[in-house]
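In practice, a research group might receive sequence data for several interacting partners and want a quick structural hypothesis before committing to experiments. The following worked case mirrors that situation: the sequences arrive first, and a predicted assembly follows.
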Amino acid sequence: MQHDAEAMPLNTQSYGRTLAPEDTLLSVRGLKKVYHTDGGDIEAVRDLTFDLGKNETTCLVGPSGSGKTTLLKCIAGLLEPTSGEVVLDGKPVTGPPKKMAVVFQEYGRSLFPWLRVAENVELPLKTAGVPKAEREARVAEALEEVGLGHVPRSYPWQLSGGMQQRVAIARAIAYQPEVLLMDEPFAAVDAQTRADLEDLVRKVRKDLGISVLFVTHDIDESVYLAERVIMLSSSPTVVQEDLVVDLPAERDQLNTRSLPRFTQLRHHVYEQIQLAKKGFRPDDAVVR
Amino acid sequence: MKKTLAGLGFALGLPIILVSIWWVSTVNSPNFFVPTPPELVKTFIEVWIGPALWEDVLPSVLRFLAGSAIAIVLGILLGVIVGLNRTLRDLTEPVFEFFRALPPPVLIPVLLLLFGLSNWTQIMMIVIGAIWPVLLNTIEGVRAADSVQSDTSRSYGIQGFDRVRYQILPSASPQIFTGIRQALPIGLMLMIISELFAATEGLGFQVNQFQRRFAIPEMWSGILVLGLLSILVAVLFRFVERRVLRWYHRLKDLENAA
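A structural hypothesis for the assembly, expressed as tokens:
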């Protein structure tokens, strides 16, 4: 970077990274999504190819309206891509896979208001036929993991926004996924709570040894959380850049965020997103 | 305790005033068509506390219960099926609107012709009249299922009957109860009307008989029975609704307070 002569070079490339099969948990190949509307076709996602590694957090950042949610829904098996495919553990995703859990942005609408906290966490296990004793153990463990062991009998709407999102995370954990998809999960909570929840995501990922795919429009958040940041262009979406975040594995809000490397990475992502907003698109992304 | 007493005072205040007015205006000017309150109470006890309770009131009530229960179950069942299916919804909407607009009593002669005079004809009458609010409200409640809740169910593999049971029905339950609240008075009304047309026993039949025999206080006492029955039904409904939808009322209270 021109303003910081001593900065280490960034490990980055202008197309999505593909990994060796043994390191790959989830593959996205040539994903394209066109919405057919009365007003004509809208190409939300043009061509996306990247792999998600095991045991890591990948953040997807992009300007607003860059098809992030569309992409996540395609990966989650909630939307059918127009072309291309998503492969999890070697199997193409055609519907919501068992090994995947989703945390939605709208926690207030994702948690069922007629169920208590523990019942919300328990429901997916109940319908999957998990025996009662095991169910209860997994629910208690998951609530403990997110720091909500004390409110199992409350209703979600009696809790603060941050706590509700913790319930949603607990529900995802109890489901024992290999991949956790998170769609701007902290966009609606205050900054303080947000920092706590970011640390929670890092802790959960490490404790459970799962992979997290985290969609956000917050640049700081993406660099702080991720081992890898995939920047998306504006719609119709392609991968703008795939950046390795080589920060130490142990992170904390105060020290990590004041590291020169953090500032440098954050700077870089910021610049790329600004470029994306202006409509810049990497030439070779479509070719790949 | 104080709150309960105050509530009771508000509930009984206007009835007490009305009964007082009725009393004052009838006590010194005997009218053949309007009995005085003590006269009515006396007749009420004489006529209805006894065999009439089993022979007339009970059959009516049982028909009402059977008809309403069938209407509610069938209405919810059909409502869920139609509400979940867009094609079915578009297909059935005009037909449902037509039947709903039809005043159910006009079907009484038709049903009598087709099925003759029996308990089942009368129960069917109640079902035909009471099912529409349940059915249409269920369809609407199911159709309005939240998209994020539905995405949540899908991504966690909650589908088919499980989804209906754990997501669709609870989320539609406030609307379903609105339908049931509208259906119950219709059921009571049809219980009486079906007995007025053609019956050999029942509350409506007896009131009609009393009127024909100019047994005026007896006729009024029958109306009183019906009134009390309606109140009982409303109280029972409220009790059940408060319990089943407790989460909903508390959530709304919280939203309103904020």
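Before designing any experiment, note the following. The domain at 34-257 of chain B is CATH 1.10.3720.10 (MetI-like fold). The mean pLDDT of chain B is 90.
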